[in-house]
Amino acid sequence: MKKLEQEEIKARLEKYLNLYGNKYPGMIELYIRRLINEVPISDVMRQVYHALDLYDLNENPFIAFADLVENKFGLEHNICEVGCGCYPALADVISKRQEKGTITGYDPYLVLTELGKIKLYKKNFENLENYDLIIGMAPCNATIPMIQDSLLYDKNMIISPCDCAHFPEWYDPGLDYINEWYNYVYDIMKYNSKTGKIEVDYLDAKTNYEFPIYTYKK
Predict the structure, then answer these.
(1) What whole-number distance in Å separates Cα of residue 92 and Cα of residue 84?
(2) Which one, of 26, 24, 54, lies nearest residue 40 by Cα?
(3) Using H for helix, E for strand and C for coil, what is the string for 48-102?
(4) pLDDT of 177
(5) Model pTM greater than 0.85?
(6) How far apart are CA 126 and CA 106, in angstroms?
(7) Interatomic CA distance for residues 130 and 122, integer angstroms
(8) Are 106 and 90 in contact (CB under 8 A)?
(9) Which of 27, 45, 97, 157 is most buried, by the most CB atoms less than 10 A from its CB?
């Protein structure tokens, strides 16, 4: 986290919440206020930290994830981010780097629908056929649907499942359900893709982002 005076952090936070605070569901605004000085380990707080420019450069998980996407595929594509979150931080980083192509974000909990060059839709995605590259950074309950739709059209894809473990109802996980969830997502990608080759990566520990990242290249 950048070394900022508390007054500066508070000013940035108040400006942000004046714009978007009442757009968050439930008690999330209070949650943000309570945790603003803690190390961000939830999707909501990571996004807020990015929006308020509180991260040091090497700590920002969205920059690190965008670096990974760029290294594997480049960014000059029509990219779709599924489950982009309340504040589309990853799409924000990508949009500022793109010289060609587009970046589109879908999430039913978006607190804004305009941000720079990003095409934002406050809803679940419907069809991924017209995109070149599908990405998801902790897309929560959209994880399996986005994988299935991406593989249906044999799209390049990079996805990092969160630790919420969105198993189908028929699945009975064991005690180590988080790692079992990661393995489940990996297996869905591996056995339903045309090549069966899935790369596994992790972000630098400085980002405090510990979820695995799976890449499928057609």
Answers:
(1) 10
(2) 54
(3) HHHHCCCCCHHHCHHHHHHHHHHHHHCCCCEEEEECCCCCCHHHHHHHHHCCCCE
(4) 85
(5) yes
(6) 9
(7) 18
(8) no
(9) 157
